[in-house]
Amino acid sequence: MTGEDPNAPKWEHRSEFKIHSQMRSIVKLTIEAAENELAATRRKLEKLTYGG
Amino acid sequence: MSSKLKADLTLLEESAASAPLSGSATVGATLTLLPGTAPSLSGTAALTADLDVAYKISASIPGPEHDISCDMEAGADLSATLTDAAAASSVAIISPPTPGSPAAAAGTGPSTPGQWKSFQIKIPGKDVLSSVRNALETLLVFLEIVKAILETIKVFLVDFGNPIKALVEAVLRLLNQLFELLKRTGLYAYYDVPDLPADPEMWAFQGGYAAFVNRFKGSVLDTRDPNRPQPVSGATKSGFILFVVDAGNSVQLLALMKQLLRFFGKDFIAPQYAAPANFKVLPIGDKQDPILAVAKVFASQPKAVALEWSATTSMQPRDPGFTDLVTRLGTELYPPKFLIERSEVPVNQELASTDVNTLGKAGTVFHTYDSDFELRGKPGRRIKRKVKMTDEYGDPFIKFQTYAVVSLTDTPTAFFLGQLGKFRFIDTNVEFGKTYFYRVRAFSGDLVVDTKGQIPFVLPGTKPSDKDKVSNTFLIRWPGKDPKFPPTMGRASQTARIHLTKIPPNFDVVEDLRRLFQTAFSLNFHLQPGPEDKFDADGNPVGATLKSAVGKGSLSRQASQLAAFVGVPLIGKGVSEVGAPGEEKNDYAADPITGKLPELPWQKGRVRRQSARLASTVASAFLENGSAVIEQFRAIMQTAPLPKGTVSVTGLTGADTIEKIVLKLTEVTDNEAVGATAAQAAATLYGDVYADVAFRKNILHAIQFVTSFTLGGTPPDWVKIAILRDVIPWSGQFLYDMMAKIQALVDAFKGTTEEIKDFIALLVRKIDAMERFIEYLISMLDYIEGLAIGAYVLAVPGTGGGVQDWFNLIDTAGGTKPSSGPNGYSGGVALAYVYPNVSPLGDAIKAAWEAIF
Q: A47 in contact with B at a CB cutoff of 8 Å?
C-alpha cells in the first residue's frame, strides 16, 4: 500500500523469534507426554500399595 | 515474504444459519463475529477444514487502507485465504505503528568499528548432542512431522521408554547439526557494545541510530579487521540481519543490551558491587571518634554509633571474548550510593514473605508457594512448599526494619569519604538499653525509600510460574522509581551488632573493678583454703580456722601468674595470722640495703596487671549484657551500709560502702612519693584488714557477684548419666536381648517383603525422576519466555551484491526504524554470512536463517 517493493527488507520491532515458538511447542508436547506417563506410574503404585 | 496477520475479522454474512465453527489456532489472528449470528470466539481462533458452510470475511486492520475482504469456500483454510487476500492487496501487517520521528541527521560522533567474530547460538538447557543426520532443507518440514507425531502419542499411554526419547533426540540432533554448520562456516557476528574502559562516557554510542549505522558501515569497510565479511557483487551470496537496541540514555541502553545479549548466551551474572569490607559498628563519644577501649566507654557516655566500612574495588577479570559491561559501569562510571540496613530485632528469625512490607518486621524471608505437584490421593490440592527467598546474587534475603540511603550528594554532612576509601555513617537515632543490627551495601540507580525508611519490596506470586526465569527461584525485587529500570544492588556486608549500655553517672566501673581485684589478691583470695577450714552459715570462721581464711579460694581460677603470690602483712593485727607464734614481725621498715620501703601487695606490678586484665574482661561482659547488670554491680559497691557488717578498723572510719573501703585500702600506690609515715599507715591498715572478718566478707560478697556473673564461679556441674545402663545395669542387658530377638524376627520376614518393597521403591524412584524431569522441562519453558527481547530487527536474507549494496539496503529500508535521534544511544548485534555464488550452503543458511529468526 505504500508503493514499496514488498520484498524489500524492512525494519521490524520484535520481541521473539521463530526459534522461540518452535522450542516452546516441542517442550510443551514433551511435558504433556511425560505427565501422562507419570499419571500411569502413580496409578500402578497405588494399586501395589493399597491393593484393589 | 511471510506475514503475521493481526486483524479483527468481521463476519458479514453466512450462507447457512447457525453453523457451528470449530478449529485450531493460528498465530496472530483474532476472530470477532457479529453478535447474534454465530457463537463468538474469544482469544485466537481460525477456521479449518471441517467447515461445512461458506463465509464472507472482512479483515479490518488499523489504517483505512488496509481493509480486505474475501469469500471463503466451505472447507477452506481461513489462514490460507487471508494470506492470499493479504498478498493480493499487498498488505504488510507486522506490528502496530510506533510514533515515528524524523530521521536523525547524518552521523555525529566518532565511528568506532565493532569487532567481527564467530559466534555460537546457545540452546537452552543441556546439550544432548550426537552425530549429524539430516539435510538442512528438511528441518522445518521435519519439525512439523515431529509435532504431529507427538500430538498423536500424547493421547495414548505408552511406556516412556523409546518413542518420545528418540523423537526428541532426533529433533535436537537436527538443531545441533544446523548450529554446528553455522559455527564452522562463513558466519560472522558483530557486537556493537560499549567498551567502557576505553570509552567510559560512551561517546561512541551517542548519536542514536544514525551513529550505529555509521559504525556498522565503518566496520565492514575497516581494512584492519581481518574477520569482517567481504561480499563481492556478482561473486558471492550474502545476507545479514541487524539487531539494534535504541534508548534515550546510556543506562537504558545497557538494560536493553543486557536483554538482547542474553539471547546470544551472554548473560551478566556476576555481582556488580562486591560486599563492603571491614564493616564495623562502634560507639562514639562527643568528639565523634570511635571508642575502642572499654575503659573509655565507661568514662564518657556514648550517644551515637558510627558505622565504618571500606569499598572493594571491582576484581572482575576481563572476559576474553567480551567485555563485562555492567560491572565496569557500576564501579567506574556511576559512583555507588550506600544503603544502610538497620533493625532493633534479631534478623536470624523467620519472616513470612507476606509480612515483608509490614512496618517494624525483620528477619530471613521465607516464601510459601503452591508446587506443581498435588497431594497423593487428593487431586486438586497442591503441595505447599516453603523456600528461602534469595536476592539476585543467590544470597538469602534478609529484611531489616529500616533503611537509609547515604550518598555523597544527598547527605554530605553524614557521609564523608575517607582518604583511603573508608566510609563512615553516624547514626544518632539510637537509644540506651537497645541492641541494634546493621548491614550495608553499595547500589546505584533510583531505589525507592520512603520517609519512614521503608522500602516497598516487589514480591513474586505463589505459583511456580512466578519464579524468576533465569535463576529459577523466587526473587524479591528492589523497587526502582521507574519499574523498567530497577536499581543495581550490591552484595551486603556482614551483619554487625551493637548494644548501647547506659552507664550510671558517678560510678567508674572499670576503676572499681580494678581496685576490688587488687584488694582481693592482696587478701590472698586466689590461694586455696586449708583442708580443715570451716565456716558457719554466715561465713564466719569457726574453731581453729584463721580469720584470714575468709575469702580464700574465690579467685583461685583467676590467679594466672599470681598462683604463687602471697600477700603478707608486716605490721598490724594481721601479723598474728601469719608465721609461727612468737615470731611476729610487727615491723615495717625500709630495706637496709636498698633503702626502699617494702611494697604492699597491690603495689606490685604482677598484681596490678592481673587486676587490670580482669577488670577489662568483666567490664566488657557488663557492656554486652546491659545496664541492668551494671546497676546491680553499682548497687553492691555503692550502697551503704556495708552488706556484710560494719568494718571497725582504724583508718576506715566512716567508710560505709565497699567502694569506699576498697579505694581507701589501695590508695597509696607509691611509698616513696607519700613518705614513710603515710606508707606505714597504709601498711598498718593492710595488716588490720587482713585479719578483719567483716572486711573480708564484704570483699568476698562483691567478688562472688563478679565471678558468678562472668568468670565461671558456679557450683559443680551436673554430669550426664545414662540411667538404664549405668544405674540399673541389668535392664540394659534385657534391652539388648530383646533387640536381638526382634532383629532375628525381622530377618526371617525379610526375604518376601523385601522384593515387594523393592519394586515399590523402584516405582517411587521412577515417579521422582519423572517429576524432576517435568520440573526441568518447565524451567526450559520459563527460560525460553525469559529470552524475550525488545529490539529492532532488519533481516536481509539474501543478496548477490557487494558492500555498497548492503549499505543501500540499510539506507533504503523502511518499516519501523530505531527512532533515537542525535541525543539517543544505540547499540546492537549483527549476524552476516558470505558464500561463493555456487555454494548450496548459501541457500541452506538462508533457509536456516528464516527458520530461526
A: no
